[in-house]
Amino acid sequence: MSKMRMGVGLAALTALISGVAVFVNSYAVKELSDPALFTTLKNSVAALALLAIALPVVRARRATFRLDRRSGLGLTAIAIVGGSVPFLLFFGGLTIASAPSAAFIHKTLFIWVALLALPFLGERLGWLQVGALGALLASQLLIAPPTGVSWGIGETMIAGATLLWSVEVVLAKRLMARVDPLVVGVGRLGLGLVVLFGYLAVAGKLTLIGGLGATQWTWIALTGLLLAGYVGTWFSALKLAPATVVTSVLVLAAPITALLDVAINGRVPGTAPLAGYGLITLAAVVLVVAAFRRQALRQSEPVTAG
User: Fold this and answer.
1) Which residues make Cβ contacts (< 8 Å) with residue 179, sequence separation at least 6?
2) Would you give the DSSP letter of residue 303?
3) Nearest CA-CA partner of 256 in 128, 152, 143, 163
4) Average pLDDT over residues 93-117
5) Whose CA is closest to 249, among 23, 9, 6, 82?
6) Residue 306 has what pLDDT?
7) Is the pLDDT of residue 11 over 90?
8) Calpha distance 40→199 (Å, rounded)
9) What is the pLDDT of residues 63-98, one digit of tens each?
10) 214: exposed, middle or buried (C-beta count within 10 Å: 0-12, 13-18, 19+)?
11) Crossing angle of helices 243-250 and 153-175, rounded to 10°
12) Comparing 30 with 221, which gets the higher pLDDT?
């Protein structure tokens, strides 16, 4: 039970970091016009920062960065389906997709994770959890009603990225049964950079790095450090708590971003979005409580001798 508490606490911290990161990224992307370049450099900073954190922590845990062949293949798969290809799909799709469509598609991640967690991770959902997941989906409709939603190649790219990120959750959860979460995080970012820099080279965009100024590098460093914190806490939470719970708690990032927008820009959401943020909080609490109850029931079941 203590592991579950730690996992939920780390998931809440991930949501806090994510909420701040979304707000900060909204300013950073205005300073770097090319999304692929921004993503690659931000991920580079995050990989270096996470490596600096991981080395002493992993040594203290008496773990190791040396991996067997199976674990190495798992890290490579996570780097492809989580740390590189979906970023290119997502940011490429954003340039041509309608804003309402993009916002709604990406925020369905927790649904796909829940569907994949049932057969591949052995997680179970009672009617209470199903109802809470439905409430989370309804909250997204209140916050960003998909009016004017259309479907084209941009929406397909964003949907593909979202599905790949949900697959990454399943792969990471299974891999962390034998590999330290921080090692998984470093591998996800570090190996993913091979694909991202390869894309920049093929697209002829590597030369853009030399034209960046001090202000742009400051934004890259800030967003990169936030990403390092996000990845580190995200994978650590995922190791300790059910994937369905962790991804659902992560949705709390939305009201955190909204609070920052109110505090700094004075933009107060309307009645429907406010109701959506309240519904997010309620649904996340219900999912967490249900997960604790389910675990407590399993632990209280008598063990019968075979």
Assistant:
1) 67, 71, 74, 75
2) P
3) 143
4) 77
5) 9
6) 46
7) yes
8) 10
9) 656 677 888 899 999 999 998 889 888 877 877 776
10) exposed
11) 130
12) 221
